[in-house]
C-alpha cells in the first residue's frame, strides 16, 4: 500500500494558517478557496484527469463573487459570455412570457456579473490555479477512519492519506456521504436532460440574441445560451420520463428521442437541436435535504450533500459558496474542528435546502400543460415577480458566503 508523503499533514504538523484538509473530488467546489486562505490542501480525484465532457454552466453573480476573489475574473471574462437578457418564452409560438434586460444590471445590483461558460473552461481555470502537486488523480476514495485527532483516507489504488479535516466533494453518489450516514440511493426526479453544443456559425441564420432563453412547454423545457466567447451555443432539453435505469454524465446520443418529443415546438428550438453533431443524455436525480452534513472531522460539500434539479442553475454555484463558507469557518476556528464544521453546516444548510425545494418546484411550474394553471403562471410571470427577474433572485445573488452571520442564512 502506497502513502502520499505530501498528502495531508497530521494535526501536530498543521500549518499556522489552520488545519490540513483533504478534499475528495476535483469538481467545482472548494479546493481553491481553501488553498488561497493558506490552508494545506490536497485533492483526491478518481478520474485520470480533471475536466469534463462539454456542456454549459450559468455562473450567477453569487458564484462570480467567490470566483473573482479567487483571482479568476480574467479567466471568466476571457471565455464567459454575460447574457444581455433573460428571455422566457412559450414553447409553440415563441411568445415572450418575460424578458428581463440584464446588460450591466446584475453587476450594478450585486457587484458581480453573470457568466455563461463552457464547463471545461471553468474547470480548466480552476485546475490551472491549483498547483499540480496538490491534485492526486486516479485516487478513488474507498474508506475513511476518523481517528479523533486526524482522519485517514484510503483509495482504490492502495494509497492512503491523512488530514486534520476530510471534505467529501464527491458528487451526488458521494462515497463519503455513504460512509458517514449509510447508503441511500438518490431519487430519480422523473426528468432527463439532453445537453448539446452547436458551433454558432451553423446557427447564423437564426440571428440569435445573446440572451439566456428558456422555453416552457407541456412536460418539458428547453434552454439555450452562448458560451466560449459566443463561438458555441449550449442547449439543454429537459423531458419528463417515467423511469430510468442508468445514471451517467457521458452517455452519448439518443437525441432523436428528444427531437421526437419536441417535434411540435417552435422552429428555433428544433433548428438548434438539428444543428448539433452529438448530445449527452443524463437522468436527473436529487435527494431531500440531509439533517446534517458533518460527523467529527469529516464534512460534505456540493452535490454530495445538497443535489438539486438544475432548474434555477444553482447546483455548482452552491458548491462554490460552500467552499467559501467552509474556508471562512476553518480559518476563523480555533483548535475545535468539530465546532468549525458545525458552524459551516448551520450557515449553509437552510440556504441550500431552500434552493433544493425551489428547484424541485420549478419542475412543475416550467412543465405545465396548456390550460388554466399555465395561464395563471404566465400571468404571474408577466408581473416580473417570479424567478428570473432581478428582484426575486436578489436573496440568491446578493449572498456573500464569506460573511459568517447566522442571521443572514435564510430559513
Ligand atoms: C443539465 C445540468 C445543467 C446544470 N446547469 C447548472 C448551471 O447552469 N449552474 C449551476 O450552478 N449548476 C448547474 N448544474 C449543477 C452542477 O452541475 C452541479 O451541482 C455541480 O457539478 C456539483 O459540483 P460538485 O463538485 O459537488 O460535484 P461533481 O461536479 O459531481 O464533482 C464530483 C467529483 O468527485 C469525483 N468523485 C466521485 N466519487 C469519488 C471518489 N470516491 N473518490 C474520488 N473522487 C470522486 C468525481 O469524479 C467528480 O470529479 C447543472 C446540472 C445539470 C445536470
Structural summary, described in words:
This protein is of the alpha/beta class and 411 residues long. It is 31% helix and 24% strand. The protein has helices spanning 31-36, 61-69, 73-79, 105-110, 119-129, 175-181, 255-261, 267-274, 315-332, 337-366, 372-382, 390-397; strands spanning 20-24, 40-44, 56-59, 85-90, 96-101, 115-118, 135-136, 141-146, 151-155, 160-163, 165-168, 187-199, 212-217, 220-227, 232-240, 251-252, 279-286, 298-300. The strands form four sheets. An eight-stranded mixed sheet has the order 5-4-13-14-15-12-17-16, sandwiched between helices. Helix 2 (61-69) packs across helix 9 (315-332) and helix 9 (315-332) runs antiparallel to helix 10. The radius of gyration is 21 Å and the shape is globular. The model is unreliable at 1-15 (pLDDT under 50). Flavin-adenine dinucleotide binds at residues 24-29, 44-47, 57-58, 139-141, 169-171, 175, 193, 195, 236, 282, 284, 302-304, 310, 313-317, 319.
Amino acid at each position: 500500500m502506497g502513502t502520499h508523503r505530501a498528502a495531508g499533514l497530521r494535526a501536530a504538523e498543521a500549518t499556522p494558517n489552520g488545519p490540513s484538509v483533504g478534499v475528495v473530488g476535483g469538481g467545482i467546489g472548494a479546493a481553491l478557496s481553501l488553498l488561497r486562505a493558506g490552508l494545506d490542501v490536497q485533492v483526491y480525484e478518481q478520474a485520470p484527469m480533471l475536466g469534463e465532457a462539454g456542456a454549459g454552466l450559468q455562473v450567477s453573480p453569487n458564484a462570480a463573487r467567490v470566483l473573482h476573489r479567487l483571482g479568476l475574473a480574467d479567466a471568466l471574462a476571457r471565455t464567459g459570455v454575460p447574457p444581455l437578457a433573460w428571455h422566457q418564452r412559450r414553447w409553440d409560438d415563441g411568445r415572450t412570457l418575460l424578458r428581463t434586460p440584464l446588460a450591466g444590471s446584475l453587476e450594478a445590483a450585486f457587484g458581480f456579473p453573470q457568466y455563461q461558460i463552457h464547463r471545461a473552461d471553468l474547470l480548466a481555470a480552476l485546475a490551472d490555479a491549483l498547483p499540480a502537486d496538490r491534485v492526486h488523480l486516479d485516487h478513488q476514495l474507498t474508506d475513511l477512519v476518523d481517528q479523533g485527532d486526524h482522519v485517514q483516507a484510503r483509495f482504490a489504488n492502495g494509497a492512503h492519506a491523512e488530514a486534520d479535516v476530510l471534505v467529501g466533494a464527491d458528487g451526488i453518489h458521494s462515497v463519503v456521504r455513504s460512509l458517514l450516514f449509510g447508503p441511500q440511493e438518490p431519487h430519480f426526479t422523473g426528468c432527463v436532460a439532453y445537453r448539446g453544443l452547436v458551433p454558432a456559425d451553423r446557427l447564423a441564420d437564426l440571428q440569435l440574441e445573446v440572451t439566456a432563453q428558456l422555453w416552457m412547454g407541456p412536460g418539458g423545457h428547453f434552454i439555450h445560451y452562448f458560451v466560449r466567447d459566443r463561438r458555441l451555443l449550449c442547449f439543454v432539453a429537459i423531458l419528463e420520463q417515467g423511469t430510468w435505469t442508468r445514471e451517467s454524465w457521458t452517455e452519448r446520443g439518443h437525441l432523436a428521442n428528444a427531437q421526437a418529443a419536441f417535434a411540435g415546438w417552435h422552429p428555433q428550438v428544433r433548428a438548434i437541436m438539428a444543428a448539433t453533431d452529438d448530445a449527452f443524455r443524463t437522468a436527473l436525480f436529487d435527494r431531500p435535504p440531509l439533517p446534517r452534513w458533518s460527523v467529527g472531522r469529516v464534512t460534505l460539500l456540493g452535490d454530495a450533500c445538497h443535489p438539486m434539479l438544475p432548474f434555477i442553475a444553482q447546483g455548482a454555484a452552491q458548491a462554490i459558496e460552500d467552499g467559501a463558507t467552509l474556508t471562512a469557518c476553518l480559518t476563523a476556528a480555533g483548535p475545535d474542528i468539530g465546532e468549525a464544521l458545525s458552524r459551516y453546516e448551520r450557515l449553509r444548510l437552510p440556504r441550500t435546502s431552500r434552493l433544493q425545494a425551489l428547484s424541485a418546484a420549478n419542475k412543475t411550474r416550467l412543465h405545465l400543460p396548456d390550460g388554466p394553471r399555465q395561464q395563471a403562471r404566465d400571468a404571474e410571470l408577466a408581473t416580473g415577480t417570479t424567478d428570473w427577474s432581478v428582484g426575486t433572485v436578489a436573496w440568491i445573488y446578493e449572498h456573500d458566503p464569506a460573511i459568517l452571520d447566522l442571521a443572514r442564512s435564510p430559513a
